[in-house]
Automatic annotation (TrEMBL):
Keyword DNA-binding: yes
Protein name: Site-specific integrase
SUPFAM superfamilies, alphabetized: DNA breaking-rejoining enzymes
Family to which the UniProt record says this protein belongs: Belongs to the 'phage' integrase family.
CDD domains for the chain: INT_ICEBs1_C_like
Pfam families in alphabetical order: Phage_int_SAM_3, Phage_integrase
Domain Tyr recombinase: 173-360
UniProt cross-references to Gene3D superfamilies, sorted A to Z: 1.10.150.130, Intergrase catalytic core
InterPro entries per record: DNA_brk_join_enz, Integrase-like_cat_sf, Integrase_catalytic, Integrase_recombinase_N, Integrase_SAM-like_N, Tyrosine_recombinase_XerCD
Length: 419
C-alpha cells in the first residue's frame, strides 16, 4: 500500500490482483494519510485487517451469498421459518443498507420498529409493517447475528453490530401442570380414536413431533418401551417431513406402563408395516397438527381445562417425576433436553417441595435408630442443615455444558415449543 495525491486530497492505494485500487480516500494532507497507512499495515501484520471496500456490500447481496450455504445444514422446517424471517423482517427493512452502515443504533431502531410496527406514511390508517411478538423479534435478531457473524469471519466487517443491541425480555407463557384427576378428565374427554396418543403424551413427555412421527418398529407395547429417533413436522405448504429430534440428546429410549399404555397402543400396530407411523388420522391419513388442534380446543374445554396446550402435557410429565423425587439427570434424559441445566432452569423452582419430601423420609428413617446409640450431647445446640440429597448429575456422563446464551435459548425454546 502507498499514499498518493488525488486532486485536492490524498488517498491510499494498493495493488490487488495486478490492478491498482483505492483502499481509502479523502485525507486532507499527506501526513494524515501516512498515519492512516501505518495503522492499516499494522493491522495487516496482526492479521485483523479488514478491507474498507468489503463493508460496502449491501446486506441483501451478502445474504444472497450466505443463505444457500447456511440453509444446506438446516432441517426443512427450520429452512422455512428462517427463510420467512429473512424475507419478511430483515430484507425489507435492512437489505438496502451496506454492511458498514449497520451499526448498533441502526439495529436498535430496527428492533424497536418490529416491536411497535410501522404505519404506511401514505395511508396512516394502514400498517406498513405490523407489530410482531417479542419471541419473533428475538428470533430475527438471532438470525441477523448469525448473518453478520459470517461477514465478520469473512473479513467484511470488523465486529458484529448485533452484539450491542438491547433485546426485549421474553415473558414465556406460564407452565401448566395437570393433577392426576385433571389428566383423567382430559383422557375421558378426548374421542376414542385420539385417546392412545394423548395418553402416550401424558405418560412419556414426548414432544408432539416425536409422538406423531413414531414408527411401529420403534415401539414395543409388550415391554413398555419406545425409541425416539425422529420427529415429524408439517411445512406451510402442507408437506410432512421427518427430521432428527430437536436436540443432540433427543435420540433416546423412553419407558411407559405396558399394562395400560401398552395395551391402549397394541391395537394401533396390528397389520401395520414396520416403517408405518403408529398414529394416524380417523380417515387413515397422517396426523395433521392443525386439524388435531381444532379438536384439542374443544376437548380441553369439555374437560374443564381451557387454555391447556399440548406441550403442557410434557411439563406435566416432568412435574410428576420431580414430585416423586426422581433425579434431574434421569428426567433430563427422559425428556431429551440438551443439558441437565435446561431441566433445572425449567423446573428447578419445583425442587423445594422435593427437598421437603426428602427431609420427611430421612426423619422417618431416624425413628428406627436409638438416639442413645448416637451419643448426642443435649447441651450442644446443633444446627443441622440438609445438604443436597446426592449429586444427581454424577451419573450424567454424557452431560453437555452450554454457554449462558445457549442455555437461555434452549430454555426459551422449551417454554415456547411449537406443537
Amino acid at each position: 500500500m502507498w499514499v498518493e495525491k488525488n486532486g485536492p486530497v490524498y488517498r491510499i492505494r494498493d495493488l490487488v490482483h495486478g490492478k491498482k485500487v483505492t483502499i481509502e480516500t479523502g485525507w486532507p494532507n499527506k501526513t494524515a494519510a501516512k498515519e492512516r497507512l501505518i495503522v492499516l499495515k499494522a493491522e495487516q501484520l496482526r492479521g485483523d485487517w479488514v478491507d474498507p471496500r468489503a463493508g460496502k456490500l449491501l446486506l441483501g447481496d451478502w445474504i444472497a451469498t450466505w443463505w444457500p450455504v447456511y440453509k444446506a445444514s438446516l432441517k426443512p422446517n427450520t429452512v422455512q421459518s428462517e427463510g420467512s424471517r429473512i424475507r419478511t423482517h430483515i430484507l425489507p427493512r435492512l437489505g438496502h443498507l451496506a454492511l458498514d452502515e449497520l451499526d448498533t443504533l441502526v439495529l436498535q431502531t430496527w428492533v424497536a420498529a418490529m416491536l411497535t410496527g410501522e404505519k404506511d406514511p401514505d395511508r396512516p390508517d394502514k400498517w406498513k409493517h405490523r407489530p410482531i411478538a417479542v419471541k419473533t423479534v428475538r428470533n430475527c435478531h438471532g438470525l441477523l447475528h448469525k448473518i453478520l457473524a459470517a461477514a465478520v469471519q469473512q473479513r467484511r466487517l470488523r465486529a458484529n453490530p448485533c452484539d450491542g443491541v438491547q433485546l426485549p425480555k421474553l415473558v414465556p407463557r406460564e407452565m401448566r401442570f395437570l393433577t392426576e384427576p385433571e389428566a383423567g378428565r382430559l383422557v375421558a374427554a378426548v374421542p376414542k380414536h385420539w385417546r392412545p396418543l394423548v395418553l402416550l403424551l401424558i405418560m412419556t413427555g414426548l414432544r408432539w413431533g416425536e409422538a406423531i412421527g413414531l414408527a411401529v418398529k420403534n415401539l414395543d407395547v409388550l415391554t413398555g418401551r419406545l425409541t425416539v429417533v425422529r420427529s415429524m413436522s408439517e411445512l406451510a405448504t402442507g408437506e410432512l417431513v421427518f427430521g432428527t429430534p430437536k436436540t443432540h440428546r433427543g435420540r433416546r429410549t423412553v419407558t411407559f406402563p405396558a399394562k395400560t399404555v401398552g395395551a391402549a397402543l397394541a391395537g394401533l400396530v396390528v397389520d401395520k408395516h414396520r416403517d408405518d407411523v403408529v398414529f394416524t388420522a380417523p380417515n387413515g391419513g397422517p396426523v395433521r397438527t392443525r386439524n388435531f388442534r381444532r379438536g384439542w380446543v374443544k376437548w380441553t374445554e369439555k374437560a374443564g381445562l381451557p387454555g391447556l396446550r399440548i406441550h403442557d402435557l410434557r411439563h406435566t410429565q416432568a412435574a410428576w417425576l420431580i414430585s416423586a423425587n426422581k433425579p434431574l439427570s434421569a428426567i433430563s434424559r427422559r425428556l431429551g433436553h440438551a443439558s441437565i441445566a435446561v431441566t433445572d432452569g425449567l423446573y428447578g423452582h419445583l425442587l423445594p417441595e422435593v427437598e421437603e419430601g426428602i427431609l420427611a423420609v430421612l426423619e422417618a428413617a431416624l425413628t428406627h435408630i436409638d438416639p442413645a446409640l448416637l451419643d448426642i450431647d443435649d447441651s450442644v445446640d446443633l444446627a443441622l442443615t440438609d445438604a443436597a440429597a446426592g449429586d444427581d448429575t454424577a451419573d450424567a456422563g454424557d452431560e453437555v455444558y452450554l454457554t449462558a446464551d445457549e442455555l437461555e435459548a434452549a430454555i426459551e425454546a422449551e417454554l415456547t415449543d411449537d406443537e
